[in-house]
Amino acid sequence: MDGIALWQAVVLGIVEGLTEYLPVSSTGHLTITEKLLGLPVDNVAVTAYTAIIQIGAIAAAVIYFWKDIIKIVVAFLRGVFDPQARQVAEWRLACAVIVGSMPIAVVGYAFRHVIAGPLRSLWVVAAGLILWSGVMVFAERAATHQRSERDVRLRDGLIIGTVQIFSLIPGVSRSGATISAGLLCDLDRVTATRLSFLLGIPALVAAGAFEAIETRDEISAHVGWTPTIVGTVVSFIVAYASIAWLLRFVSRNSIIPFVWYRLALGAAVIALLGVGVITAT
Question: Model pTM greater than 0.85?
């Protein structure tokens, strides 16, 4: 592998920023895009690059929700020392995010070599896109939307965080998994989406930081830090706009339109694989 060109870094940054928070699978889209760009999708340096540029998208979420994050952190710190302070909604939300971030951290670390290796296949991506679409449809149909952000409990964080584990499979989508789980917990669509964003911050920051440290030599030798920084910055800019758009969208619409897109993309990938236009890895 001769590295990633700056124009390829820009393309990958745009794809990451557009798809990180939409329920369409950023990893799946990055894998497809990398394949179309002629990059080895199961290469250690490429998979590390994919994880690292997610930090840009997470930075966008941190800045977008900065005031909310401050309130949650302050409420949590107060609640640690004052039992009375644990009655506020922000304390419960903080606990839900903390507990919900643990399952994917444990499973992601334990199976990191499988995730970065055998699962990086376009057959897996296509299957994830299509099969998880059924879960999204079921969640949308079963949802009652009776509970708001002030009703979030520790149990919600545990359930949504556990379901988030499925997003380690390329094609499933972290936001698709967490929003679906939130809807099945009877949270309204905006609350489920906002909680999905908040749960993504610790999970993806940890994944990106871990990859940057563990694979720094591979990045330096086979990708280059300049393309990595460019991809991260581009993903930040595009993701910020994507977050704002998605929150407006789900306040008025269901997530079903994303299902049709997922099914079409999954079918297209299978067709291209079937006729030999592209290979799985």
Answer: yes
Q: Is the pLDDT of residue 2 over 70?
A: no
Cα 51 to Cα 38: distance, rounded to the nearest angstrom? 18
Is a pLDDT exceeding 90 seen at residue 266? yes
Q: Are 183 and 140 in contact (CB under 8 A)?
A: yes
Q: What residues contact residue 220 under an 8 Å CB cut-off, 6+ apart?
A: none
pLDDT digits (tens, 9 = 90+) for 73-119: 999 999 998 888 898 999 999 999 999 999 988 898 888 777 777 78
Q: Using the Cα atoms of residue 80, residue 181, residue 108 and residue 106 in order, give the sign of their dihedral.
A: positive
Q: Alpha-carbon torsion 167, 241, 63, 224, what sign?
A: positive
In the chain, % helix, strand, coil (3-state, to 5) comes to: 80, 0, 20
Alpha-carbon distance 175 to 28, whole Å?
A: 13
Distance CA 198, CA 93 (A): 10
* Residue 169 per-residue DSSP state: S
Burial 245-271 (b: 16+ CB within 10 A, else e): ebbebbeeebbeebbeebeebbeebbe
From the centroid of its chain, how far is CA 187? 19
Counting Cα atoms < 13 Å in the Cβ hemisphere of 102 gives 9
CA gap 266, 281 in Å, rounded: 16
**Residue 156's pLDDT is what?**
96
3-state secondary structure at position 281: coil
Rounded distance between C-alpha atoms, residue 104 and residue 18, angstroms: 22
Quick one: pLDDT at residue 51?
A: 82
Taking every pair of C-alpha atoms in the chain, what is the biggest distance, in angstroms?
A: 64
Mean pLDDT of the chain: 90
